[in-house]
Amino acid sequence: MEQKQNQFWQTKALKEMTKFEWEALCDNCGRCCLHSVQDGKTGKIKLLGVACRFLDISTCNCLVYKDRFKIKPDCERLSPDKIRRIIRLPYTCAYRTLVEGRELEWWHPLVSGDPNTVNEAGISVQGKVVTGAHVHPDDLEYYTAGK
Predict the structure, then answer these.
(1) pLDDT tens series, the chain, 147 aa
(2) Domain-located, residue 125
(3) Can you name the residues that pair with 56 across neighbouring β-strands?
(4) Which residue in 93, 121, 134, 145 has the most C-beta neighbors within 10 A?
């Protein structure tokens, strides 16, 4: 596995990162773009097998990324101060990983040098979900996220 020479994520706090470095932390897994439900008793978040209608489920890229907050105002805006409070971020999320003091996994593109390893490792939603454009909102609860 090729290691990147500039391993900024190991030497900088999230607040110290440039916009480019912050964006590079995203592995494009698409998990944060899944609809979810919260268990009323336990508070646990369950990701559903339905992605936001703006997620290209074959590439796991947002189709409206630059304008996502204008087009979809409820899209979660990540910031270093909010990471710990966003309970729906998946355990594998690089932002959450770093805040919790863990190392990025081998499949993360910054570690592997290959943006496809997130798919090869089965971390991304590629091939596991449907897009919300094809699901009636009343039927969301019937879709579970694929493993």
Answers:
(1) 444 458 999 999 999 999 999 999 999 999 999 988 888 888 888 888 889 999 999 999 999 999 999 999 989 899 999 998 888 888 999 999 999 999 999 999 999 999 999 999 999 999 998 886 666 666 666 666 554
(2) yes
(3) 61
(4) 93
Q: What is the pTM of this model?
A: 0.82
Residue 75 lies in a domain: yes
Burial class for 124, CB neighbours closer than 10 Å (0-12, 13-18, 19+): buried
77 token code pair: 């805006």
Nearest one of 32, 70, 27 to 52, comparing CA atoms: 32
Q: Per the structure, how many domains does the chain have?
A: 1
Residue numbers of the domain that contains 88: 14-138
